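Supplementary Methods. Inverse-folding protocol.

Structures were first reduced to a discrete structure-token string of length 330. This string, shown here, constituted the complete conditioning input.
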């Protein structure tokens, strides 16, 4: 049971909610939140440190606090969160390398939990019916956040070899969605007119933001090693999801999809629609989809999401006037 927990990415929505949820957990003495910017609102019970995980400061914080468990929620999903793709990659990849180096130098660190993404499997015409944790990607991502996450996972595996005494848990989430979180995908489904790829109807999975936080919290407290897929039960197609939004849609040829989507996004007066992501990997996902096998997390954690894929998406659609969180990784 961890006594002192460090959470990276704590100024963002999911990281902040997770950090707060760990404060009252049995046996937890301190929760330290770290990010390069301060949170929009104070995090109840969390000791916040404004620091860049790429700097030596993070090692000193961990050593002086005697950190037992590190939860890496700080992998950035969109370039506008970091000020550009180059900075984003530097924070994601170099930042993770420096964080793990600090973990290796801190003897008290006994566990590392990584929030990753199912995007590391990629998407394409050779997708299997279900991606298991040991499935080799048929279409490995070649750019963007999914590629960064694949590299991050590689560094985490290297750390596991160097520190076999530490428990390593990697959570590969389907797209996280809900009434408050804002991501590239929620921006897409918020467009006033939603483009789809002519001739394709991707199979999609989602996990509700509360379920994602709940599983991450359990992973921190339980200390169960391994890599785990996580998604709400069931599948909905892109066409079904678009119909649920109630927005009109337009089917366009694949070669025009990204440019049409960006044009609609720029012309939109809905603030959340400006988050819409039309990167190469996102376009492939919206064309071919991706479905996860989640039996391993159900078996080893004894856990299932409270909401299905369809219910999680409906929670996003019916968010109404509830306050939204800041842009968060998915």
């Amino acid at each position: 049971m961890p006594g002192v927990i460090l959470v990276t990415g704590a100024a963002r929505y999911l990281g902040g909610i997770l950090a707060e949820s760990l404060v009252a957990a049995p046996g937890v003495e301190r929760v330290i939140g770290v990010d390069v910017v301060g949170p929009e609102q104070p995090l109840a019970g969390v000791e916040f440190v404004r620091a860049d995980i790429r700097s030596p400061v993070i090692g000193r914080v961990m050593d002086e606090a005697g950190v037992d468990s590190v939860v890496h929620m700080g992998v950035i999903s969109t370039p506008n969160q970091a000020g550009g793709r180059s900075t984003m990659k530097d924070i994601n990849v170099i930042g993770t390398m420096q964080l793990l180096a600090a973990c290796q130098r801190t003897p008290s660190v006994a566990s590392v939990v990584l929030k990753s993404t199912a995007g590391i499997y990629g998407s394409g015409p050779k997708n299997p019916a279900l991606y298991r944790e040991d499935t080799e990607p048929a279409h490995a991502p070649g750019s963007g956040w999914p590629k960064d996450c694949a590299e991050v996972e590689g560094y985490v595996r290297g750390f596991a070899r160097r520190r076999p005494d530490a428990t390593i848990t990697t959570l590969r989430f389907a797209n996280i969605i809900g009434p408050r979180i804002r991501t590239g995908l929620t921006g897409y489904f918020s467009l006033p007119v939603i483009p789809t790829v002519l001739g394709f109807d991707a199979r999609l999975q989602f996990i509700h933001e509360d379920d994602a936080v709940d599983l991450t919290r359990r992973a921190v407290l339980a200390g169960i090693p391994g890599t785990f897929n996580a998604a709400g039960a069931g599948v909905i197609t892109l066409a079904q999801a678009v119909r649920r939004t109630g927005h009109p849609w337009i089917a366009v040829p694949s070669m025009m999809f990204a440019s049409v989507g960006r044009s609609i996004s720029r012309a939109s007066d809905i603030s959340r629609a400006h988050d819409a992501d039309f990167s190469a990997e996102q376009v492939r996902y919206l064309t071919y989809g991706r479905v996860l096998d989640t039996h391993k997390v159900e078996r080893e954690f004894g856990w299932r999401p409270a909401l299905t894929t369809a219910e999680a998406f409906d929670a996003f659609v019916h968010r109404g006037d509830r306050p939204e969180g800041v842009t968060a990784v998915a």
